[in-house]
Amino acid sequence: MSDERRHQQANGGTSQRGDALETLREALRGFVREREWEPFQNPKNLCMAMMVEAAELAEHFQWLTPEESAALDAPTRAAVREELADVLLYLIRLADTLDVDLVAAAQEKMVRNAEKYPAERVRGSALKYTAYR
Question: What total of structural domains would you count in the chain?
């Protein structure tokens, strides 16, 4: 059973997924279908394309200080916005081809992260969870 189906069954047959994410997913499906790109939209290619876009995003921050990275000028901020959109769109498309409900997966991951990083034990520390065992 797919993540989507499990999520729908757990919520009385209706998806509680964010409407914006669903709208983007449907728009991407149409975009790909209209261009007949389905043969190229496999998980491997989508993952690789997403990583390329993530690298292009990282390039805007390369060599900046933490302070500079938090205070981008308007043109750089606009470019970062474009790259973030590219990463998001590829992520949504990748999840769609794998039938993964991104909202459910993220919510479940947050629960696991809370278990691995209990606030009372990790507050103010950036160590990996294995350091807290």
Answer: 1
